[in-house]
Write a structure and sequence with these properties.
By secondary structure, the chain is mainly α. 74% of the residues lie in helices and 0% in strands. The longest helix is centred in the middle third of the chain and has 18 residues, at 23-40.
Length: 80
Amino acid sequence: MPLETLVRLVKEEQQKEGGAFGPEDIAIMTATFDRLLGDFKLVDRDDPAVTMLAKLVIEIVHTGERDPERVRQEVLGRHS
């Protein structure tokens, strides 16, 4: 399941940053990532595009954006 990719990357980021994301941040990332997977019709967690999307979502939320739709639009804007 592709969502496992996001969870793994968030955990790695938290270890590097010392717990940078709270439960609300993780919920935002999960909802946004799930929607993006549908946007791109991705189902294979080993697809490099899944990892790329997860990293972008994490990066954008890490910058302080907390609106799931804005995060989604920023990711989509980088890939249009």
